[in-house]
Amino acid sequence: MNMPLLARPEDVENAFYEAIAHADLDALMALWADDEEIVCVLPDGRRLEGTAAIRERWRALFAATPRITVRLSQPLHWTSMLLAVHHVIETFYTADDPAPKSCVLATNVFQRGVNGWRLLAHHASAAAEFPDSDETGAPGLAQRVLH
């Protein structure tokens, strides 16, 4: 898959969660850096190293649960010229069920190269509880809903 130049780390992050929402393995894999030392740590504790391992695990995840919606909240971003780190809270939903299925703390590391920004590492860990809502009862102000 030929991926367009992604000008900002946020573009990669948005495309990553869109690929998850659409169970689009090719789109998801096109977002990773062209480096065999990419790493993906899943909430179950698995550490996946390299393109082949990451591709195979996400293929299995999409086969098991093809429709996942992820809502991001409480983002923290650090960005330099060649590296960006985003820490977010991911809340997962399946199909049309409005009840959250799980909550995960995730760190996404992006690298800037000749092909724009790409994902270098995704590290997800189970969260102790669901994120707090704001005083109105609505989810966090910076939340994004991806379908």
The total beta strand count reads 7
How many helical elements? 3
Share of β-strand residues: 35-45%
User: Which CATH architecture would you pick?
Assistant: Roll
Tell me about this structure.
- By secondary structure, this protein is of the alpha+beta class.
- It has a single domain (9-126), classed as Nuclear Transport Factor 2, Chain: A (Roll), CATH 3.10.450.50.
- It is 22% helix and 37% strand.
- It contains 3 helices and 7 strands, in the order ααββαβββββ.
- The protein has helices at residues 9-21, 25-30, 51-64; strands at residues 39-41, 47-49, 68-79, 83-94, 102-113, 116-126, 144-145.
- It has a 7-stranded mixed sheet.
- A hairpin with a 7-residue loop joins strand 4 (83-94) and strand 5 (102-113).
- The longest helix is centred in the middle third of the chain and has 14 residues, at 51-64.
- The protein is globular.
- The two termini are 21 Å apart.
- Residues 133-147 have low confidence and may be disordered.
Keywords:
DUF4440 domain-containing protein; alpha+beta; disordered C terminus; 7-stranded mixed beta sheet; NTF2-like_dom_sf; Nuclear Transport Factor 2, Chain: A; 7 strands; globular; SnoaL-like
Tell me briefly what this model is.
Helices cover about 20% and strands about 35% of the residues. With about 150 residues, the protein is an alpha+beta fold.
Describe the secondary structure blueprint for this structure.
Blueprint: H1 9-21, H2 25-30, E1 39-41, E2 47-49, H3 51-64, E3 68-79, E4 83-94, E5 102-113, E6 116-126, E7 144-145
Parallel strand pairs: 1-6
Antiparallel strand pairs: 1-2, 3-4, 3-7, 4-5, 5-6
